[in-house]
């Protein structure tokens, strides 16, 4: 191999910039150094903090078991990096290979990794969103603020949206003995991510723990008192909920606005990239110097019909970051595809929920193990006669088996008896996912796009 | 004619170093001889089967044991007790394990094991203080064996004055699990049924007593708690207590002994442990990979025909999962035959995986960590007097019967 080719120069003295200093950005930076990148490394983050872990913000932090400011991510190694924290990236000049920053600075790069993630979707009416007591939960500061509110013993908390985050917040409220109402536009909690069959179990779980759960309703207005504190919410069924804390948990928006007009294939659905994490430009041509990883990326997954998957999963951020980092400094023949089977977890109301694969792709579900009526279960999702996803409530030890089934494109429904010997274990039912054109709150996977061979490929430009 | 691999595994002559046999075994990931069990020896195949919901632990699902030399009757340890959750499938397994764990580990009892740290330290200190002549120590009889039995007594809440009797029964049962080949076959294991009976009656009495006057020990809680799954019956509680006793010490004794043997064979690591007791954590993890106390899981059977690595294993066949071989699989671990406590990639199979993964794992880890760091700290210039040491017969629960060591003195 030529010891002084462009790749060797890049690895020895190149400039790599990582925009986004959270989980994916940090792990990518560590992988770059692990793999021998000796050039300059710059991490840019809009938050003033070093990378921290978000899952505890809706769990241990709200229970008062952990401080929001002590959630820094463990470091796997020394980085020798330049940190530009508290300064957002505001623009990208692809031709000049420069990232513009909010403070006017420009940072040149030879390779760029975009890991800007997502932000919480805000309450749409600004005046109502500005009321004291109306909170979104995404950042460390949000977590600390909500924990403080809960510790003050509010009379009632209203959670708008029963996705995973909203449900975990409701769970923390109940564990702290705080009265909580959950308003969900869909038919059940978690329905967007897991479908109606499992959603019904989640609804039962919430009600059994004393949550005032209202499904099939929308919050139409928030009301404040004379001092600007939130006081109540109007619901679409005509009812009113009095609450002194309102948590807006309406899912996430991808942080791609800063790329508007750059020519990169970035939009509300994220940054389109190939299976090796290289970003597409708006012409559908893959770049070779810009990569994406984590929540902001959407890339085709061969296991799921090459559909473009955007995953808001902790594990995806880690594995995709490693792949992207490796590919950034590798010859094209040494590059790796991002093939990890998606997985996520949640803990709420004393139940550990875990999932592998892509349940939202499924149309049917079977429950081969355990029972929907209590004691936990495994639900397996099928699409066109093959296994595409699985979810467990307190049955996580079985999931590695179903992960293998997904990897092998095993037949659905599973044609074999299992230890529980449930009589209905092999009878599939409609998984009951909501119509994808009707928005629900908080699905963690979105499927979009088509196979590369599909001539109907469309592109949603940034706006 | 050379011995079949199955016989080589079982042959006590190979007990000191079974790993070359396992390497041979891994050339055929699913090994099958005539009527014998299907023996699975490679890491990924074992891990996959440990999570497979078609694989039963209930001996009633065995169609025929064929010539499985390790087959046991369906009833637990040939006693009159109902099977413990080790030999049950969901949903019964889940119910019993959940009810037991409620009083042992998180989320309901997060402090049970951690709260025993002082107790463990005290027991270890007492046993090392009691070592007489430093010139000839049998680490098994003087330390590794009495340690976990005492721990189980304290965990269950056996009164101190009864501990000696408890040790006596445990000794007799342990001896029956591992017969002395030189003993008269007529006498072999003769005391065991008596010991089981007496231990059972003793525990039944203790359970009755604890139901009336509960303490904060685990047996009291198990006997009196009314959780969402109700209360364990006395029979269920007896088989669970028997399981905790047998599984809790027959394994830990080997973990500690194999650990000290391995450290004495790797004096640089022993030296590092003496300087930094925190190294006990990665050392114990590597030991669980390198010399696991449970070498193989012999009691599984598929509920349907399954295919593993191109081999069809028929429904009801006897299945062995050779954990110790998976732990040395070069497709999974770099330099698998090297003892390396600095190994970072260490997802071993030493404690199993899936729903039957070692129930007592947090306690076993803590016991071994305390034992090894204290032995390293207090024994001055320790050395092996016999290498390899004599091994117990048992191919499943593998470990030295004696470990003769000497040292220059015992530090305070």
Q: Which strand order does the major sheet of chain B show?
A: 1-2-8-5-3
The CATH topology of chain B is what? Cytochrome p450
Identify the overall geometry of chain B: globular
Number of strands of chain B: 12
Assign the CATH class of the largest domain in chain A.
Alpha Beta
The CATH first-level class of chain B comes to Mainly Alpha
Could you give the count of β-strands of chain A? 30
Low-confidence stretches of chain B: none
Strand content of chain B: 5-15%
User: What Rg of chain B is obtained from the alpha carbons, in whole angstroms?
Assistant: 21 Å
Largest interface: A-B, 19 and 21 residues
- What does the average pLDDT of chain A come to? 92
Largest sheet of chain B: 5 strands, mixed
Number of domains of chain A: 3
Alpha carbon gap, first and last residue of chain A: 45 Å
- Beta-strand content estimate of chain A: 25-35%
Q: Helix fraction of chain B?
A: 40-55%
* Cα shape of chain A: globular
Kindly state the percentage of residues in helix of chain A: 10-25%
Order of helices and strands of chain B: HHEEHEHHEHHHHHHHHEEEEHHEEEE
Region (Disordered) (chain B): 63-88
InterPro entries (chain B): Cyt_P450, Cyt_P450_B, Cyt_P450_sf
Keywords (chain B): Heme, Iron, Metal-binding, Monooxygenase, Oxidoreductase
Family (chain B): Belongs to the cytochrome P450 family.
